[in-house]
Amino acid sequence: MSAVLPETGLGAEGVGPRPSAAGFMRQLFRERPSALAGGMLLLLFLLVALLSKWIEPYPINAQVGPVFGPPSASHWLGLDDSGYDMTSLLIEGTKVSLIVGFAATLVSMVIGGGVGIAAGYFGGGVDTALMRVTDYFLVIPDIPLMIVLAALFGSSLFNIVLVIGIILWTGTARVVRAQVKSVRQRVYVERAASLGAGHLRLIVRHILPQVAPLLIANTVLTVAVAIFDETALSFLGLGDPTKVTWGSIIEHAFDRSAISVGAWWTLVPAGLCVSVLTIGCYLLGQAIEDTLNPRLKVAHLSTRGFRLRPLVGTGRQTL
Amino acid sequence: MSLLEVRDLHVWFDLGHDRELHAVQGVDLALDQGERVGLVGESGCGKTTTILAVMGLLPPNASVAGEVLLDGENVLRRGEETVVAHRWTDLAMVFQGAMNALNPVKTVGWQLREPMELHGVASGAKAAARARELLGLVGLPASAADRYPHEFSGGMRQRATIAMALACDPKVLLADEPTTALDVMVQAQILQLLVELTERLGLTLLLVTHDLPVVAQLCQRAAVMYAGAVAEVGPIDQLYHQPRHPYTRLLFAATPDIYGEDDVQWIRGAPPRLDRPIPGCPFQPRCDRAFEPCPTERPQLQVVGPAHHAACHLNDLDSEVQPSAGAGSRA
Amino acid sequence: MRRSDYLIKRTGFAMATIFVAITLNFFLFRVLPGSAVTNIAHVPHASLQLQEALKHQFGLDRPIWVQYLRYLQQLAHGNLGISWADQQPVRTHLATNLANTVPMLTLGTVVAIVAGIATGVLAAWRRGRAADYGHTGVALLFYSFPTQWLGLMLLILLASYLPAGGMSDPFLIEAGFWQRVADTTRHMLLPSLTVALTLYGGYALIVRSSMLETLGEDYVLTARAKGLPAKVVVRRHALRNAMLPTVTLMALSLGSIVGGFILVEVVFSWPGIGRATYEAVVQRDYPMLQGTFLVLTVSVVVFNLLADLLYFRLDPRVSE
Q1: Roughly what angle, to the nearest 10 degrees, separates helices C147-158 and C177-215?
Q2: Which terminal residue of chain B, N or C, has fewer Cβ atoms less than 10 Å from its own Cβ?
Q3: Is C130 left (phi over 0), alpha (psi -120 to 50) or beta?
Q4: According to the 3-state scheme, what is the secondary structure of A182-241?
Q5: Contact A236 C278 (CB under 8 A)
Q6: Strand B4-16 to strand B73-74: parallel, antiparallel, or no bridges (unpaired)?
């Protein structure tokens, strides 16, 4: 009963392959301002990370002012417990946090995407086996496992990236598998298969393009989770001690009595950065997902009712 | 006086960006007590919106003009406020039961009892008994009351939806595609059921469908809608054998004959956009008999026979120029 | 499949997952290169006696599969090893820690669920209006705050009103039962509040999304057509159905609850299982770390199963 949504005259979409990437992006950003907002925020952080070397006002490991110096004209975000400039630390932290976030997400995407595609495409025994494993890891809680792995294998940046990536793939795998299964059924994929196309060709040429948008949405959301996980690991002392990340900044603020001294500037900006990035990722990722699977239904219930207008009255007789 | 009368009903949907969809454009209908009237047309012609408007079941982005008179009283007088009092007690809707019209987490019996208790028709054990009675009326076993919708087939769910609609003894049943998505055998049973019920209980039925054989089986009269307006309305017989609007004629001709004897003629083209005003006749671009006044002058409904009206400029002319009796007729 | 088959299947899955976790626990700590348990030299301040005892206890001179069986056997007897930090049984520590975590976590989670549902429903109901944007924005904000950072912020803001850490006032001696309860509760407020704020945002977003989906369903229109007032439709038809995907999604977020409360306990020095995990890491007390990992994982699996059972109860269609 598609009653409430007027289907008249505006033309139904044909069912078939999705529009091109450029077309999709145009549609996305035009229809959803949240996508634009999210995208801009991410871009901003990316720029800061890329230009970090040139925009850090002070070196990050040299004392350039008084210990716990408050924000001032020369040090916008103040100084930390060793007299390092917070602004520079934050910029450096942006760079490293984003590296960790994207690298871990890449690992997770590759594994999760691979598993999902294999499970969805081949089906049968492969699917059952892969999904069984995925299900176990979906239930086993992430952070304790990360803690154990990080504690055992040591905390270089590389290890952290691997640890996070290895644990995050399960969510992606499930999502990708579902999408691959639905795409697999589509007529043109079957047709290509019957023409003798090999598995790899089918996957790359036909399935991957259909799965890609959802994968991208998932990637964006995963980046936020990865960055949060890094802050958690850092906070528990499992981060790379030689690198500056948003997580390590927060950890230092906690560990080095910045709170009791009242040096809020060593804590607040780093957390806000994580928060803003997460919001940006959420907005963009949700917007992509919503554009891919639009909720066509109008709410049947609302606080406002329909409105009345005066009679049009074309002077017809009643029947 | 007619039991249910729709006068000059207009419905607009606000599409944002200062655009509006004029989904229903001045529809007039009249139903006498005990009548079964069909409302037919292609997808998107506004027929569903029309019956939803009769019960005021429109979303917040809708605006309505016109009157819906039940026993002479305009139920839309103050919008939601006035119409809600008539819901289910006077006007009840039979939705497409095969779809999601029944709440999946409540038993069928519970869903039958809910409106009874709400409107004070019956409660407690009496309501349960009445629910079982209604189920029997539509051909379902009493045990169905304790089952959940997903445990039933499409046909049985449709019967349950009908039973639910009868819960508060309404005067008018509005049915929205009650047999779509059911297979042909089941369809026939449901239609038979509707005929029996309306006759037995003295109900009035307004049936919306795009399926012409259904209308032919069930209804005495029908209104053909196109692009939000009524193109033709009259006795079924007349619509079949003496259509006075090219759309009606082509519509009935487009229905495949079960013996495959007639050629199926599709109507080429698509319905017009309703988000901008249409000068002239909305069917004109697809019409095979369009002539001089059609693109510029909008045709009004006029009498073309006993209880038979059509909105077409062809009827302004002499009888020789009108569509021949042979067109669209069945052997 | 009949309905009862679903229960059996889910319970079986839960048990299998626990078994996988146990095995993982074993292999991570014993087998993989760099695994520290095999290197007794990592144990801080280990006397020769302790080294020998540990070697014997862990059977590190035996083949792997023998060690594994011994490990399972020990587990079956409830023996989780000895903490390297204080030579006390891991099991005892875990019991105390768990007893401390449960009330704090329960308070925070229950508040989060109630607040999340209320906010989500309200936002969905007033979709597109100011109330929606407001509530959704605030929920998104709290959802985005890193948990440890949020805890620290609350600490800064409220430290003068509420105790900054620990579970009890060390100077409270000779106190009566109710005094102690009151004292513990006061200490619990900040950590529970942090847990609640961190979780409610995510829940509100989930509930809002589910409600919006449900409000577009045909049976909601049917309910309205019956003449039911809007509030009744929302409560009786929409909410009930929206709870189904909500339960599922909340269950998926159990892992993040664990991550969250570990961080909270560290911030507020709450002597629960989260902080025990942290201290085990800091002290490289691997038996304790193994123990806490096991307890946390088993808890999550159990709650996941409970969520499955709840879903089963709520949805009559479940039969597969």
Answers
A1: 130
A2: C
A3: alpha
A4: HHHCCHHHHHHHHCCCCHHHHHHHHHHHHHHHHHHHHHHHHHHHHHHHHHHHHHCCCCCC
A5: yes
A6: unpaired
Amino acid in the structure at residue C302: V
- Dist CA C105 CA C195 (whole Å): 7
How many CB pairs below 8 A link A and C? 173
Note whether B50 and A275 are within 8 A (CB).
no
pTM score, whole prediction = 0.86
Q: How confident is the model at residue B322 (pLDDT cuts 50, 70, 90)?
A: very low
> Cβ A142–C24 below 8 Å, yes or no?
no
Residues 123..162 of A with a Cβ closer than 8 Å to C: which?
135-136, 138-145, 147-149, 151-154
Residue pointed to by tokens 């949805």:
C315
E strands present in chain B: 4-16, 19-31, 36-40, 62-70, 73-74, 91-94, 172-176, 204-209, 221-226, 229-235, 302-305, 308-310
Torsion of CA C262, C267, C273, C279, to 10 degrees: 100
Q: What is the identity of the amino acid at B45?
A: C
φ and ψ at A76, to 5 degrees? -55, -35
The CA-based dihedral angle spanning residues B291, B295, B299, B305, taken in that order and rounded to the nearest 10 degrees: 20
Cα gap B321→B14, rounded to integer Å: 41
- Residue A155: which H helix or E strand, with range? none
Residues of A in contact with C36 (CB under 8 A): 152
Domains of chain A by range and CATH? Answer: 28-55+63-293 (1.10.3720.10)
Query: Closest by alpha carbon to A235, among C268, C109, C299, C294?
Result: C268
Burial of C147 (0-12, 13-18, 19+ CB in 10 A): buried
Which tokens in the block code for residue C105? 């976590």
| Mutation choice for A interface testing from C98, C132, C149 by most A CBs within 10 A | C149
Mean pLDDT of C16-38: 74
Kind plus residue range of the DSSP H or E element containing B254: none
The closest of C131, C110, C130 to C120, measured between CA atoms, is: C131
DSSP state of A14: P
> What is the Cα–Cα distance from B294 to B303, expressed in whole angstroms?
18
pLDDT digits (tens, 9 = 90+) for A84-118: 889 999 999 999 999 999 999 999 999 998 898 88
Domains observed in chain B: 4-219 (3.40.50.300), 224-327 (no CATH)
Predicted complex: ipTM over 0.90: no
Q: Convert the pLDDT of each residue in A112-141 to its tens digit.
A: 988 988 888 887 888 889 988 898 888 889
| Percentages of chain C per state (helix, strand, coil), in multiples of 5 | 75, 0, 25
Condensed to tens digits (0 to 9), the pLDDT of residues B299-321 reads 888 888 888 999 998 888 755 44
Please give the DSSP secondary-structure letter assigned to residue A318: P
